[in-house]
Amino acid sequence: MPEQPQVERQEDRSRPERAMIEIRSVTRSYGAFKALDDASLTIREGEFFSLLGPSGCGKTTLLRMIAGFDNPTSGSISVGGQPMEGIPANRRPTNMVFQSYAIFPHLNVEQNVAYGLKRLKLQGGEEKRRVEEALAQVSLTGLGKRLATELSGGQRQRVALARALVMRPKVLLLDEPLSALDKKLREQMQVELRRLQQAVGITFVLVTHDQYEALAMSDRIAVMFGGRIAQVASPKEIYQRPVNRQVADFLGGMNFVKAEIVEENGASLVVDTLGFGRVKTDKPKAFVRNGGGATLGIRPERLRVLWDNATAKFEVAGKVVERHYFGEITHLIVEIPGLEKPLSVTETNDFGADDIPVGTSIRLAYDPEALVAMAD
Amino acid sequence: MTAVRRFLSSGWLAAYAFLYVVFLYLPVIFLPIFSINTAATPKFPLSGFTLHWYEDLPRTPALLDAAWNSLIVGVSAAILSTVLGILAARSITRYRYPGRRTINGLIMAPLVLPEVIVAISMLLVMLQLGLSLSLFTVVLGHVLVCIPYSMTVLTSGFEGFDRSLEEASSDLGESAFGTFRRVTLPMVAPAIISSLLVCFTISLDEFIIAFFLTGTEATLPIYIWGQLRFAAKLPGVLALGTLLLVASFLLMTVAEILRRRATRRTQNEGGLYA
To answer: Where are the transmembrane segments (chain B) (predicted)?
Structure first.
């Protein structure tokens, strides 16, 4: 049993949360095009934070500005309470894991990891000790003498991680670090990255376009579209209470149902829909009323097929028009009288949802808690 | 189709390839063989073994002068064309701008222009500019013909150089100069050395441009050409030719090894996505 590396806790979780990165009204323009448009964000000390969005949403631009490879056209960024304006990348308390990993091909693993330490001129074997520790953190002990060319994709990724972590940065920036890995390795690295972040306690900022990656790893997520930050919240809240249709759509399947607002007060919203009747829901924090209409959403997995004579307090009836088999789950497309679009339902296959013939009339149960109101 | 395949598999292809190689290299093989023959005329049968012709070489002042001139011209042309090549190759591999391909084509054009035409045009230009013919004008001419080779070697070394390597270095705390010294230079050094060797070799062997652009000072190929008028000097020329041949071969081999190493270094990062 190899000895686990002793990891210093750099942060005490019982302490009140403090800001590590402050982004204030940052805009980055290229001519008339705004890659980032008035973005403001606070990333807390010791948190695993993800910038999530489709390509071209400005997430990488923002990350590169935190690292110092790019500068805001206007607005300010501070890291650890220190304004970053005019500070070049090589003097910032941040380190980055590049999408291409950027492993120095003329150096071996050890020399790659020690690259940044060389300048610090550490005394008495301290450099060697820190390199060993970093390699152990990413489970690469014993591979120090390998050349970068002799490593697999997953191993290169670990070298890139070790090379950044060994600098003990205040913030570790990760630019789509898992996108070059195959699916299985990617899922394994998600778990490892999260575990590593918990162990070292450093603030991680991850850029990704993969919603599952962001949901699986993050403490909080910022969802971005077209240079703007649409929503900042915990994975659960982002998934269950998306602030608008765009966010809801980006984070997986969502059934959208047209609704009419009947009543609006501080915390709740009462809407009328055709398929689900009159529904009272929590009002989203960022809800801004736009006329009398709204959209009600429900995730496909929150609709359950009612078997035989089972009943539920809340149910809708319809007819299966399509069935798609996905191994552990089945997607059913169910037409509901009165709804302009059929509902998409995800059902696990334990009870035989994969055997429901197309054309069958079924009833679906739902929990009104799962219904979410969104501004149009 | 089947006829072609039968022809290829019947051993004719091997015979053709063999004849082709013999035709290419047989004359080259005669050079060293006759250079160690005692007879002054290159004729079979060989009359006996001697290193006499080689021993005479360092005792010929005109030849030493020519060798020295060639060395000066070769080194200057190699350094100049490599420096210019670095700038051009960096610009062409790193930036995207309109006219990039045209510029690349124009730089490579001397490769296919008739050398005698290039030499005459350069002679006219040099004289118009009022430059007197000297080793300096030869260097200028050689730079022109070397740059395409230099560019070929350097672009293959620079291509695929991942910008994020320089960013990673900076991110890890290194200054701009430190990044150049610790990352950029070691990665492109083999390509640069390879380019220097290739250019030197080309300049060393180049005859036509040197012939037109030099004044009274001869380079080695010009010296050899001059010696050919005297039948008795032929074995000495063959000995010198053999040495040049060996030197060129060695330099080009080293250059090619270095070029491949440079290519592998800069491009294995890209292999990740493959």
So the answer is: 12-36, 66-87, 107-127, 234-258
Chain B nearest C-alpha distance from A207 (Å):
16
CB contact under 8 A, A100 and B269: yes
Asked if the ipTM is above 0.85, the reply is no
> So what CATH class is A255-374?
mainly beta
| pLDDT tens digits, A91-117 | 999 999 999 899 998 899 999 999 999
Contacts of B136 (CB under 8 A, 6+ apart): none
CATH code, B77-268: 1.10.3720.10
Q: Does domain A19-240 have CATH number 3.40.30.10?
A: no
The pLDDT confidence band at residue B8, using thresholds 50, 70 and 90, is low
The answer to whether the CB atoms of A180 and B175 lie below 8 A apart is no
The confidence score (pLDDT) of residue A171 equals 95
Question: C-alpha angle with apex B100: B94 to B106, nearest 5 degrees?
Answer: 120
Find, among A220, A228, A195, A239, the residue nearest to A45 by Cα: A220
CB A156 within 8 A of CB A103: yes
Q: Which of A69, A106, A156 sits opposite B167 (nearest CB)?
A: A69
Give the integer Cα–Cα distance in Å for B173 and B178. 9
**Would you call A167 and B172 a contact, using CB atoms and an 8 Å cutoff?**
yes
Tell me: the pLDDT tens digits for A50-89?
Answer: 999 999 899 999 999 999 999 999 999 999 999 999 999 9
Compare all CA atoms of chain B with the CA of A160 and give the residue at the minimum distance: B168
The answer to whether the Cβ–Cβ distance between A90 and B171 falls below 8 Å is yes
3-state secondary structure B23-35: HHHHHHHHHHHHH
- pLDDT mean across residues, chain A: 88
pTM, two decimal places: 0.75
Going from N- to C-terminal start, the domains of chain A cover 19-240, 255-374
A interface residues, B as partner, C-beta within 8 Å? 67-69, 88-91, 94-96, 98-106, 115-116, 119-120, 148-149, 153, 156, 163-164, 167, 180
Over residues A177-190, mean pLDDT: 87
